[in-house]
Every structure is written in structure tokens, then in C-alpha cells.
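Technical note accompanying the year-one report. For the benefit of new consortium partners, we illustrate the data format agreed upon in the data management plan: each record pairs a sequence with a C-alpha cell string. No post-processing was applied to the example shown here.
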Amino acid sequence: IRAKYIIILSRWYKYEFFNIINFWEIKLIWFCNNLSKTNNWTWFNKFNYITNLLLFYLKTNDYKNAIIWVNKLIAINPEDTYPQIIYAKILENTGKYQDATDIYLKLLKTNPGDIILLTKIADLYTSLEKYEWGLQYYNKILQIDTDNYFTLFNLGVVYFSINNFDSAIYYFLKSGEINP
């Protein structure tokens, strides 16, 4: 009996979840269509609606619709790196690793000290088993932030993956000292 109620509830929540997505889409389309009729529509409101829709699609792994909405975010403010990072992550999740890498590297040219971008690139190279490239970018992060325990831990993982156990232990221990 308990399992029956859980199945019914999960179906209801899924139904409600997609109703929420439809609500946001309808509201956004209505506002876009009535843009000339109202002065209450600001860049911030539009950005928030699109961001919420994008997050819904990302949570449901609906990358086709997520790409549509992330492109709309990029169109609102092409200089903002956040939507472009999301776009690259979607490409990465759909197996388009080279396209994702190209976006990360393009963004890194305009933001050379951005630790988030450096981490994304290092993580991507590491997941593709291009360990030397991953090490290069993790080391760039340590030049900026020597106490970045996350990077130190990831260096330990990379060194462990290439069977350099002495270096792996060193970085694991150093990471543990900073964040026990």
C-alpha cells in the first residue's frame, strides 16, 4: 500500500513540475509579446524568468530546451560569462567535449585569472584522461590561490590516476591540512 501511494505521489509531483515549467514559459512568452505595452518589464525580470526556465530544464536533463533558453540569456547580455559557462557545461554533458573546451578557452582569454573557468577546463581535461593538460590548469589555479584545497585534492586524484603515488599522497595530505 505504501509503495502504491509513493508511485501516485511521484506521478503527481512530476505532473506538477511540468505544469510549473509550462507556467513559466507561458508567462515569459506573454511578457515578451506585451513588451511594447508595458513599462514594467525590465532586463532583470526577463533574466530571472529565463534563468528559472533554464534551471528547470537542466534539472530534468532536457538539454534541447536548455540550449534554447541559455542562448536567450546569452543574447540578453553577451558579456556575461555565467550563461556561456552553462552552455559549455550542456555541451560537455551531451558529449561535445571539444566545443565545450573551445568555449571555456575563449572565456579564459577575457578572464585569465578566473578560478571557476580554470577549474572547469582542468576538470574537463582530467575527465577526458588528458592528465598533463589537467595538471597544467590545476597548477595555474594554485599560482592564483595556493590554499585552494579543492584543487589540491584534484591534483592528488590526477597524480593517483597516472600512478605517481608519492605526489598523490602529498597533495591529498596538503588538501587535508587546509580542510580537514
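Partners are asked to follow this layout when depositing records. The longest helix spans residues 2-33.
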